[in-house]
Design a protein that fits this description.
By secondary structure, the protein is α+β, with helices and mostly antiparallel strands. The protein has 4 domains: 82 residues, Beta Barrel (Thrombin, subunit H), CATH 2.40.10.10; 103 residues, Trypsin-like serine proteases (Thrombin, subunit H); 94 residues, Roll (Pdz3 Domain); 84 residues, PDZ domain (Pdz3 Domain), CATH 2.30.42.10. Helices cover 24% and strands 32% of the residues. The protein is built from 9 helices and 26 strands. The strands form 5 sheets. Strands 1-2-3-6-5-4 form a 6-stranded antiparallel β-barrel. Strands 7-8-9-12-11-10 form a 6-stranded antiparallel barrel. Strands 14, 15, 16, 17, 18 and 19 form a 6-stranded antiparallel beta sheet that branches. Strand 4 and strand 5 form a beta hairpin.
């Protein structure tokens, strides 16, 4: 057993200090790492969050101060005033269009004397709602869509003040979906056409109309795109696309720029739900105005005609034809006796401009051509064998039936089992009264044996044989009359 021994340190001497254990640097390093990680995980996001709040707060405060300054100077009010003034300029000319159809009664159940007719007479059924815009207050002309008034027995127009007036259909063009109405009423305001060719993506526009029968509804948006011509909604289309809300009932109403002018007629929307989804379509004023004026003056639409069949320009074809880029329409066929044929256009020409306006594809070329004035000499710019040149073409009226020959007749190939028609002979299907074909004695039902001395059995052979004669403005034909009688005729000028 150990004994306790008294240790004498001496009087006046401090006791010795206890020895300190050595520092554990590894533990300290772990603490520092944990502290650093905590700072990264919690500290930096906190500081960033606080900095973000400070930046947003400062930005909001700066924006508020800038807006207050602009408002004090009247700039904010003037910006809103543009929308108000554009609306005020056009809205009074916007009308609500309602169509009705006459229904004949089916008789009252259990009444044998009704005889299938309602004793109260025919009834009117509301069949459609849309909008329209007054473009001539003195003569009472109103523009709307054809699909709004299609198949209507009665058309009623409600003016801005709420008064209803019966409307007369002046003319309609299903190919562009436009129609012109006329009311016999005192109209105080009409709208002015604008120039849609000056529009570009991003321009502000307003749509005014009666969506869901809510009269005088105004929506705002921008032009999202121009010349949408590949949607297959109408036969002729070069739509303006806008994100201004267009819903059911807006059809026929105006699309307006901030100068208070009509630059389009609202026509359709693209949607998967049946409601507005941000894509509205309007017929541009450059097209609508010409068609409307033609309907008023002629009662029909007169369209320009060039007389070529064209196709798109692929990169390979552009390289082959020595044309820079793929913008344009390549001529695949020049129709005989057409304005293009008389002007010397050739297969392989690449048309890039018509009347100074760019042609990007075949659909654009067609839209440009139908808008040209009949009888006008129009410059057509094209590439031929890599060289750029311009030719003058005198535009004529586009035939309603392009299968109709320029000399006034139409051919068809009979079916193999068609009774009374010998196989391998073309049949004259139609002859235009007072045309060169009619004057030469052509009548429906006659059959074509030959062009000149060349026998023809189908349309391809006929076109090839006729081309040399058509260039000279004449066409010699051998016709089979009856079973065995052959007649020789010459259409047009003698060769």
């Amino acid at each position: 057993m150990e004994s306790s021994e008294y240790q004498d340190f001496g009087f006046g001497e401090p006791p010795p200090r206890p020895t300190t254990p050595p520092v554990r640097w590894g533990f300290v390093l772990v603490l520092l790492i944990l502290l650093l990680l905590a700072t990264l995980v919690y500290g930096i996001p906190y500081m960033a969050d606080r900095s973000g709040y400070a930046w947003e707060s400062g930005r909001s405060r700066a924006a508020s101060e800038a807006l207050a300054k602009l408002d004090k100077e009247g700039i904010v009010g003037r910006a809103s005033e543009l929308f108000r003034m554009a609306t005020a300029a056009v809205a009074p000319a916007v009308v609500h269009v309602r169509t009705q159809r006459v229904l004949q009664g089916e008789g009252r159940p259990g009444n044998p004397l009704a005889g299938g007719a309602d004793l109260l007479g025919p009834k009117l059924e509301n069949t459609g709602l849309g909008s329209g815009v007054i473009i001539d207050k003195d003569r009472g002309f109103i523009v709307t869509n054809n699909h709004v008034i299609k198949d209507a027995d009665q058309i009623v127009v409600r003016l801005t003040g709420g008064a209803d007036h019966p409307a007369r259909l002046v003319g309609a063009d299903p190919k562009s979906d436009l129609a012109v109405l006329q009311v016999n009423a005192s109209l105080r305001v009409d709208a002015e056409w604008g120039d849609s060719d000056q529009l570009d993506m991003g321009d502000w526009v307003l749509a005014i109309g009666s969506p869901f029968a809510l009269d005088q509804t105004v929506t705002a948006g921008i032009i999202s795109s121009t010349e949408r011509n590949d949607l297959r909604i109408n036969e002729y289309e070069a739509f303006l696309q806008t994100d201004a809300a267009i819903n059911s009932g807006n059809s026929g109403g105006p699309l307006v720029d901030l100068s208070g002018k009509v630059i389009g007629i609202n026509t359709a929307m693209l949607t998967e739900t049946g409601g507005y989804q941000g894509i509205g379509l309007a017929i541009p004023s450059s097209m609508a105005r010409r068609i409307v004026e033609s309907l008023i003056q002629e009662g029909r639409v007169v369209r320009g005609y060039l007389g070529v069949r064209t196709g798109p320009l692929s990169p390979a074809l552009a390289e082959k034809l020595k044309t820079p880029g793929t913008r344009g329409a390549v001529v695949l066929k020049v129709l005989p006796l057409s304005p293009a044929a008389k002007a010397g256009l050739q297969v392989g020409d690449v048309i890039t401009q018509v009347d100074g306006k760019a042609v990007t594809d075949p659909l654009t070329l067609r839209n440009r051509t139908v808008g040209l004035a009949v009888g006008r000499e129009t410059p057509v710019t094209l590439y031929r064998e890599g060289a750029l040149q311009t030719v003058k073409v005198t535009i004529t009226e586009r035939p309603e039936d392009l299968a109709l020959h320029p000399l006034g007749f139409r051919l068809r190939e009979p079916s193999p089992d068609e009774p009374g028609q010998p196989p391998g002979l073309l049949v004259i299907d139609q002859v235009v009264p007072a045309s060169p074909a009619f004057k030469a004695g052509l009548r429906p039902g006659l059959r074509v044996l030959a062009v000149g001395q060349t026998r023809v059995h189908n349309m391809d052979e006929f076109e090839k044989a006729a081309a040399p004669f058509e260039e000279k403005g004449s066409l010699p034909l051998s016709l089979l009359i009856g079973k065995d009688r052959v007649a020789e005729v010459v259409l047009g000028d003698a060769p």
